[in-house]
């Protein structure tokens, strides 16, 4: 390994440990593959075994039976677009025979985007001149992924029901994410403003929505 490669690896270890609050001793192995183009550098991470207990029966008698590589989009490492390949250990419980993956420090379950990137994307989305596409280009993701991150992590509180509700259906662009081709838009008749948009105009969607609202609030409508 050249001196430059050693320096890159040391700097990357420091960034990885500080970004994910990972004790440095948990980093068993880090391989850095810098690309010639300056984009899509790859960091292959293996963590030291952490003696987990079985998540099904709580037995401490578990063994490593293999590795699953998960590709996690990160953002900028050493000033370049990068991807993390995390070699997650698969454990098998000797007592109940079930298998499970080790605790994932880098992303929420089944997501391919790291927690650190999600945090930055949510901050960027607050800026008025940003779009899903501009942010997607910045982090090397698709606009749909950025939109999905927004939908999963943005919790907007419900607005109280107004005295008069105007309900209209609206044709929504074709999307596999939506349950219906028609969305249901609810407006405050007096204020002439939208207070709720439901992903379907179906009766079940509407009843699910209204029955979650306290009766005394519904009675004021
Ligand atoms: Zn078990």
Explain this structure:
The structure is a single chain. This protein has 221 residues and is an alpha+beta fold. It has three domains: 3-106, no CATH class; 115-155; 165-219, no CATH class. The protein is built from six helices and eight strands, in the order αβββββαααβββαα. α3 crosses α4 (143-153). The termini are far apart. The model has no long low-confidence stretch (mean pLDDT 85). Bound molecules: zinc ion (ZN). Zinc ion is lined by residues 54, 56-57, 59, 93, 95-96, 98.
Q: Please, how many helices?
A: 6
What can be said about the biggest beta sheet?
5 strands, mixed
Question: What percent of residues adopt helix (DSSP H or I)?
Answer: 25-40%
Q: What fraction of residues sit in β-strands?
A: 25-35%
Radius of gyration: 24 Å
Number of domains: 3
Number of strands: 8
Report, as a whole number of angstroms, the end-to-end distance: 72 Å
Low-confidence stretches at least 5 residues in length (pLDDT < 50)? none
Compact overview of the structure:
The protein has 221 residues and is an alpha+beta fold. The chain is 27% helix and 30% strand.
Tags for this model:
single chain, 221 residues, alpha+beta, 3 domains, three-stranded antiparallel β-sheet, binds zinc ion
